[in-house]
Amino acid sequence: MDLDVHLGTDERDWEPTADGTLRMAIVGLGWWSRERVLPALADLENCRATVGVSGSAAKRERVVADWASVEHGLSYDEFAAGEAVDAYDAVYVCTPNALHLPHVETAAGFGKAVLCEKPMEATVERAERLVSACEDADVPLMVGYRMQTDRACRAVRRIVREGVVGDPVQVHGHMSQPIAEMFDDPSHWRLEPDLAGPGASVTDLGVYPINTTRFVLDADPVAVSASTWSGGGEWFDRVPDERASFQLSFPDGVTALCSVSQNAYHTAEFRVVGTEGEVRMRPGFFGDRENELLVATTEGETTVTYEPADQMREIFCFFADRVLGGKTIPADGEHGLVDMRAVEAVYAAAEDATRHQL
């Protein structure tokens, strides 16, 4: 089976063409920004970090000391007041979900493009206000769906859209991780509804299979049914979804069966079954691991391995090229609102044990 044109492991299927370098203010200097974002930006030609924003003076000082491109360390109040506003062109927001809105409003007020981590906010209503803030200020907004620039995921998209496995019939998506081993803190914000949103597993992990399914199928869900469970204890006594499973219904009878958990083995998989074959990506959603793609049809099977990818490097390169070139942003605010509504529908469907229309 000759799938080289679909699988291409070495080249992007998009290339940056815009001139210039986009200067970023990194808002939120937690472990993700310090360990994943700043290293990813260190050697990008079209994007670099020039400002770090945090409520912690120690984190601000450390980032300025460790990264030569970061010229300014600001508190949240200083950022909101407009200090060093001429030192950056765009803002990356990576704070707890319920704090995204005020930082995006600040960025939009200064006329800065925004890359906002997913999910956009803790509720649909706040996410709608976030989108409106960017629309009213006429600034670009992109939601940080890393899978949309991941090379393995984009290969899955090409395979499905070009009919290699026939017409899509079912999608299976799973993602889980042992959050207690990752953070060693039961008060972590992802387990706090006031900061994370209505739950823990669906809000943080469920968005991966939801958005990746939409991206691959180029379709939006029309209904959802769901089940959640939480065993309580000091880790999960505030959230309903230590574990969750849900089914998304798409047009033309396609269904996506998804499962997520914040208290399970660290694993993931994304699979599309079609009328003439299947494509499977594993582990899929974890960019720091080797990724295997399996394509099987009546003609045989092909497996290809993708080296660990720096997903943050790819998404910042893509974002910068879109903003610098004035190009269309696929994962914009309206796109992100579809996921927000789907996530809220999952919790509602699980709570009342009924199917919810979207």
Automatic annotation (TrEMBL):
Keywords: Oxidoreductase. It is an enzyme of class 1 (oxidoreductase). Its EC number is 1.1.1.424. It comes from the Archaea. It holds the Pfam family GFO_IDH_MocA. Gene3D superfamilies: Dihydrodipicolinate Reductase, domain 2, NAD(P)-binding Rossmann-like Domain. The keyword rRNA processing does not apply. GO terms for molecular function: oxidoreductase activity. Residues 154-279 form the GFO/IDH/MocA-like oxidoreductase domain. This is D-xylose 1-dehydrogenase Gfo6. The lineage of its organism: Archaea, Methanobacteriati, Methanobacteriota, Stenosarchaea group, Halobacteria. The gene is gfo6.
